[in-house]
Amino acid sequence: MKIAGLQKVSLLDYPGRIAASVFLAGCNLDCGYCHNRWMIDASAVAEAISIPDFLRWLETRVGLLDGVCVSGGEPTIHAELPVLLREIHALGMLIKLDTNGTRPQVVRGVLDEGLADFVAMDIKAPLDARYDLVAGRAVNVADLRETMAVLRVWDPTAKQYEYRTTVEPHIDALALREIASEVWRCECWALQPYRPPQDETAAQVQGVAFDFEQLQEIARDLAGVVPGVFVRGE
Fold first, then answer.
1. 81, 103, 17, 4: which is closest to 48 by C-alpha?
2. Could you tell me if 209 and 170 are in contact, meaning their C-beta atoms sit under 8 angstroms apart?
3. Could you give all domains of the chain from N- to C-terminal order, each with its CATH number?
4. Nearest Cα to 77, choosing from 99, 50, 49?
5. 233: exposed, middle or buried (Cβ count in 10 Å: 0-12, 13-18, 19+)
């Protein structure tokens, strides 16, 4: 397991908290719009900071940071993830886990052990054959639904997790309504505007995506189905 990047302070990545964000290299998906595509192949990534050095640095932030957002890449592909989360929690830090939801057993294990305090799960497309198009690789949508079920059992109040959809050009208003049918009324669902990666991979996603104002209008319409839907960022 390799740390590809470290943001030492973030006011955005962990809702309502001051957090550091650590990005673990490697992902089991290949989304064309991903701004962290450069870390998909962990073997090609230079380590930004060793895990022991990160933990030593984090110890100096006790009392200054509320917690750590563990992102990627996809954190749940790493067998060593629980070890890292235990070390972070041992410092009294809260943990937000970002996940694409493809490894429900790992998410269940993390939550059963009390190693995460907030979870953000991506829902990239309607849960059908279109998912593979957006994700860039074959995805078993049953795994996604299982991860959603795991989150619902873990937190029946739906206060400590959220779903996120980056509304890239493949996702139209009908697709968003289909995703909404999978989300419970009590749950939070963040729509995120698409921003083309500023590198050679940008051409992989063709078409025009909704802008911020259009997404706000769509969110107002979807609120009749999912009251917790909102648009994040501009």
1. 4
2. no
3. 3-172 (3.20.20.70)
4. 99
5. exposed
